[in-house]
Each structure stands twice: as structure tokens, then as C-alpha cells.
């Protein structure tokens, strides 16, 4: 494995006219970046999970739009806007649940209606700002979340919400990073079947940063909580409804139910770009179903097999099971009581 640490690892690197995407399917054994020069390639990188994690998906899509402008403006300065609009529509089909994708595409789309003297430069600048803002938000959330962890002995996280899933630093993993700088905290990471974001990505990221972490099978979570080892479950989000209902990696809902049973608190950490103000509750969030072959043992992947798989990759945790939602604009305690709208006025 190539040696590197979190200060140098980035899921996405922008060179000015190429988007370099770290292929997360190959981690932690192989560290390789693929180069993308058009929106179609970026769409494939998102759909194929080379890049994943809600904020990173949004940032990649923004750079995908910038690449589209570079290409089409050079080819056809008279009609580039229609071609870029079509690429934006295509990028929007790459994955359905993370609202950061649609948020970032909407941000980029606003430029299409504006008079621009240098369109490529304007779109590149907007994508770079989305990327930089995400890192700044994560650092802020890291501090706010760590404030809530004062005195905590242990935390458990799920999926990967770190540098690999964002512009940098991470959401839930950013809080864990910040907390570990202040005090010793025992960090537990669930494997996160079936794609193993916890086992392959989270423990690797933390180890690169010198933060000790204990991996556990997802099915061991209840017993861990029963042991009294953890005070908080800390997770990210792919979409938060206005009432605080939260879509996140499959298994988050199970952890929240278990946490309630065992008196463990649940913290969701996400930038406000993850809040979908258009939906009042989680019932309208589309849950991505991925191919059953991602789950099935190879011997069952054949015509006429009697074994199929159900592979929803997100679930929805109701707000009443969440103790705190941490955003860069502030912390919402007990979101079931007040919802998220108090944060909207600042946006
Ligand atoms: O399918 P993935 O790996 O894209 O799912 C990622 C998650 O569910 C994360 O928890 C979420 O996007 C927050 S990442 C900061």
C-alpha cells in the first residue's frame, strides 16, 4: 500500500483542467487517482463509487460541470450553454439520495443564466468555492461537535464520513478528529456492510492520522452499547429533511434504535448543503437500491439462481432518535422538538 497521511490524501484534486479522483473501490490496498476531463466521466466515477460520500459527490459534480464548460465553450462558443445544461441533467442521474449532488448542480446552474465574460473561469471559480466552503464547514462542525463530546469516553461511527467523503477533514469523522485533539476518546468503527466503508476507509483514514480505532462487525453494535463502552454514535448524512429526519448509510437507523435502548446519544454531523428544505420529513427521500451483485456471493450470480439480494444502501432515521444535528451554522439539539428551520433564516 502507498504510504500517505490525511494531510496529503484527498478524494478529489483539481488541477485547473483535470479532475483527479481517488478510486475508493481499491482502498486501502491501492492508492490510485484517475483523471477526468469531461462530465460523462465524472458521472461514471460517482455512479461507480470511485468517489462517494454526500459532500464529495456534490463537489465532484461541480467540477464535472466546470469540465463540461471548458469542453463545450472551446468547441462551440455560440451554443455551449445548451450542452452544459444537458450534462448537468446527466450528472443529476448519477446517484439519487445525497442531496448535495442536486444542491451543487443547482449552484452551478445559476451561472448558466448569467452574462459571463470568461465562462470557464467563472464555472471553475464556483466549483472551487463549493470545495473550499465544504472544508471550512467541516472544520467548524468539528469544533461544535467536539464541544458536545466533553467527558465522553467512547464513540462509535458508521460508514466513512472523513476526508474521503468530503472536500477534506470530514463531517462525523471531523468531529472525532477534533475531539481526539482535545482528549483521549475510544473510537469504534462499524464495518458498514456490504461495501465496507468502515472497514476499508474509516479505519484506514484514522490510522493515517495516528488515531487509534477499533473495528467491529455491524452486528456487534448492540453488544458494544450494552457494555457501556460508548456514549455517542456519530454519523454523517446524505439528506436531512426539514423536520430532522435523516437519510444516511444503511444501518444508521438500526444504530439509532439500539442507541435509544441503551441510553447512548446520537449525533448527526452534516453541512447545511445536506438539508433538503423542500421536504418536510424523510418519507419523500428516495432510497438508492444498488445492484444485488454487490451483495450476492459469486456462486449465486448466475441465470436461474434461486437466491436474490435486497440491497438498499441508505435508510432513514427519524428525528426523534437523534440527540443533536451539528451543522456549520450551529447545533440543533433534539431536532424532533424544533426541526431544522431555525437554521434556514441564515441561508
Ligand atoms: O454510499 P456512500 O458511501 O456514498 O454513503 C456515504 C454515507 O452514507 C455517508 O455517511 C454520508 O454521505 C455522509 S459523508 C460525509
SSE inventory with pairings:
Elements: E1 12-14, E2 19-22, E3 33-36, H1 39-47, H2 54-75, H3 80-91, H4 99-112, H5 119-148, E4 154-157, H6 172-182, E5 186-190, H7 197-208, E6 214-216, H8 221-226, E7 232-235, E8 239-241, E9 246-249, H9 252-262, E10 265-269, E11 275-276, E12 314-317, E13 324-327, E14 330-333, H10 335-338, H11 341-344
Parallel strand pairs: 4-5, 4-7, 5-6, 7-10, 8-11, 10-13
Antiparallel strand pairs: 1-2, 2-3, 8-9, 9-12, 13-14
Helix pairs in contact: 1-2, 1-3, 2-3, 2-4, 2-5, 3-4, 4-5, 5-6
The protein binds 5-S-methyl-1-O-phosphono-5-thio-D-ribulose.
The site of 5-S-methyl-1-O-phosphono-5-thio-D-ribulose has 17 residues, from helix 2 and strand 9.
Give a short overview:
With 347 residues, the chain is of the alpha/beta class.
Describe this structure in words.
This protein is α/β, with parallel strands linked by helices. It folds into 2 domains: 12-135, translation initiation factor eif-2b, domain 1 (Four Helix Bundle (Hemerythrin (Met), subunit A), Up-down Bundle); 143-344, Rossmann fold, CATH 3.40.50. It is built from 11 helices and 14 strands. The strands form 3 sheets. A 7-stranded mixed sheet has the order 6-5-4-7-10-13-14. The chain has a 4-stranded mixed sheet with strand order 11-8-9-12, with helices on one face. Strands 1-2-3 form a 3-stranded antiparallel sheet, covered by helices on one side. A hairpin with a 4-residue loop joins β8 and β9 (246-249). The radius of gyration is 20 Å and the shape is globular. The structure holds 5-S-methyl-1-O-phosphono-5-thio-D-ribulose.
Amino acid at each position: 500500500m502507498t504510504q500517505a497521511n490525511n494531510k496529503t490524501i484527498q478524494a478529489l484534486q483539481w488541477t485547473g483542467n483535470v479532475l483527479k479522483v481517488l478510486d475508493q473501490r481499491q482502498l486501502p490496498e491501492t492508492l490510485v487517482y484517475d483523471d477526468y476531463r469531461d462530465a460523462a466521466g465524472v458521472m461514471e466515477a460517482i455512479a461507480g463509487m470511485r468517489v462517494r460520500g454526500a459532500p464529495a459527490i456534490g463537489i465532484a459534480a461541480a467540477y464535472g460541470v466546470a469540465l463540461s464548460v471548458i469542453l463545450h465553450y472551446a468547441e462551440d462558443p455560440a451554443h455551449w450553454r445548451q450542452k452544459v445544461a444537458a450534462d448537468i441533467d446527466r450528472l443529476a442521474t448519477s446517484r439519487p439520495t445525497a442531496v448535495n449532488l442536486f444542491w451543487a448542480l443547482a449552484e452551478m446552474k445559476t451561472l448558466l443564466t448569467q452574462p459571463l465574460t470568461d465562462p470557464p473561469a467563472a464555472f471553475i471559480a464556483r466549483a472551487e468555492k463549493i470545495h473550499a466552503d465544504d472544508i471550512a464547514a467541516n472544520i467548524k462542525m468539528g469544533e461544535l461537535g467536539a464541544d458536545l463530546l466533553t467527558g465522553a469516553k467512547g464513540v462509535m461511527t458508521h460508514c466513512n464520513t472523513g476526508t474521503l467523503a468530503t472536500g477534506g477533514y470530514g463531517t462525523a469523522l471531523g468531529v472525532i478528529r477534533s475531539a481526539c485533539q482535545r482528549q483521549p476518546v475510544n473510537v469504534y468503527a462499524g464495518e458498514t456492510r456490504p461495501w465496507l466503508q468502515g472497514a476499508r476507509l474509516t479505519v484506514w483514514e484514522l490510522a493515517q492520522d495516528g488515531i487509534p480505532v477499533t473495528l467491529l462487525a455491524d452486528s456487534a453494535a448492540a453488544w458494544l452499547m450494552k457494555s457501556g463502552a460508548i456514549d455517542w454514535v456519530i454519523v454523517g448524512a446524505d439528506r436531512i429533511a426539514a423536520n430532522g429526519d435523516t437519510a444516511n448509510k444503511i444501518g444508521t437507523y438500526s444504530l439509532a434504535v439500539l442507541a435509544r435502548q441503551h441510553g447512548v446519544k446520537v449525533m448527526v454531523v452534516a453541512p447545511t448543503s445536506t438539508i433538503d428544505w423542500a421536504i418536510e420529513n424523510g418519507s419523500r427521500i428516495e432510497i438508492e437500491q444498488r445492484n444485488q451483485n454487490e451483495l450476492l456471493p459469486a456462486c449465486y450470480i448466475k441465470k436461474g439462481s434461486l437466491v436474490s439480494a435486497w440491497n438498499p444502501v441508505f435508510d432513514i432515521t427519524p428525528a426523534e432518535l437523534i440527540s443533536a444535528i451539528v451543522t456549520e451554522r450551529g447545533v440543533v439539539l433534539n431536532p424532533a422538538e424544533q426541526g431544522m428551520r431555525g437554521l434556514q433564516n441564515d441561508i
